Amino acid sequence: MFGLKGTKCTPVIRGMILWALLTNIMLVLYCLTNPAQVKIRGYQEDTCPLSMAVLSKKNVTTHSERSKSQSEECSPAVNIMFMKTHKTASSTILNILFRFGEKHKLKFAFPDGRNDFFYPSAFMCSQVKDYKPGDCFNIVCNHMRFDHREVAKLLPPDAMYITILRDPVDLFESSFHYYHRAVPLTWRISGDNKLEEFLNNPQTFYSAEAYNSFYLRNLLFFDLGFDNNVEADDPRVMRDIHNLSKHFDLVLIAEYFEESLILLKDTLCWTMEDIIYFKLNARKSSSVSRLTPEFRAKALEWNGADWRLYQHFNATFWAKIERYGRERMKKEVNELRRRNAEMKAICIEGGNAVEAQKIQNSRFLPWQPVGESSILGYNMKKDIAPKFRTVCEKMLTPEIQYLTDLGVSLWLTRLWGWIKDTIFTV
């Protein structure tokens, strides 16, 4: 009938048709759940007052862990904006923030129906669950595309702004692995090494306007609210970087994660107990592409804006470490490692992360990329002493499950997860 009798669809074509249909369904659901994007600027009542900061600090105990030269006590920061960037160890930071906020009964600004603030749309206050102009929050930390003017409406004026960056080559490799199946233009890439094929001629498989293309170029720049398609020598790049410097109190570096957490502790006046962690959302080593120097150079050129961003804040990061003191930092890092090892021995079965198929309790199963299960997770020991059981469970809980524990409705995220795992996981 209609000249198609006897025609057979290949598995690739069937998959593309199915993906297109499901993508359209998800876009419709997104539109139905995306709140009205009405911008109301310039009104005093839209801004969270300083009094909120004063009142919220009653939930935490003042302490001092500063150097001997700083005898005065400091007050732990409770008003925090963490700009959660993609593929930068930010999920581990998120877990730390969840535990701190839950422990001290702080107020989170959460999305509604999903685990992000309608990413990749630019953030707006209306995306916060039950938001009303003038509402105040302590912590904003879910994925978003950053807009400082909108975020500032949610937090007291004394809020600390923090984010984390990662070497752009390693971030690009990780992002390509994790997201390329969600970027339709990459489906045409042939061969066993799709990443190298892409880097050999990226413009063939990339268009700025294409669906989900932002995942594959200058992802840090995009997450932070800028144009990810600018060239590295465009004057807007350094202008945007300097503007960002005015808003963020601390920019962490993923390659120096332990040092980053010590600076975080010092900046926020927290304790060592507040920053102990287990590494979450790590990939199994067999899924990591080992790029040659030639392809690293190509990836760096393709992500030139991110490279300039990283260079700038890597320099400010090490300047902060110099002011903190190298010997003092070394001592603190060793103490953090000791505390983490102690908690691993108490909490984790076997002491290390395992592949998704070996995770015994779905509560500890992390979200997986489309088409595979490459993200590691943990098994919790069964014979944990009662006084450690709750903290072990919280430290091992991935983002989606922890958000549910905190009362966030994730029906759209879970619907997409069911579709992804039922149809596309191999």
Automatic annotation (TrEMBL):
Molecular functions per Gene Ontology: galactosylceramide sulfotransferase activity
Can you say where in the cell this protein is located?
Golgi apparatus membrane
Q: Primary place of residence?
A: Golgi
The signal peptide here is none
Membrane topology (UniProt): Single-pass type II membrane protein
- Ranges that cross the membrane: 12-32
Look up the record and report any one GO term of the cellular component aspect: Golgi membrane
Task: Give the domain of life.
Answer: Eukaryota
What keywords tag this UniProt record?
Answer: Glycoprotein, Golgi apparatus, Membrane, Signal-anchor, Transferase, Transmembrane, Transmembrane helix
- State the InterPro entries in the record: Gal-3-0_sulfotransfrase, P-loop_NTPase
The UniProt entry's GO biological process terms, in alphabetical order, are: galactosylceramide biosynthetic process; myelination
Q: Which family does it belong to?
A: Belongs to the galactose-3-O-sulfotransferase family.
What is this protein identified as? Answer: Galactose-3-O-sulfotransferase 1
Write the lineage as a comma-separated list: Eukaryota, Metazoa, Chordata, Craniata, Vertebrata
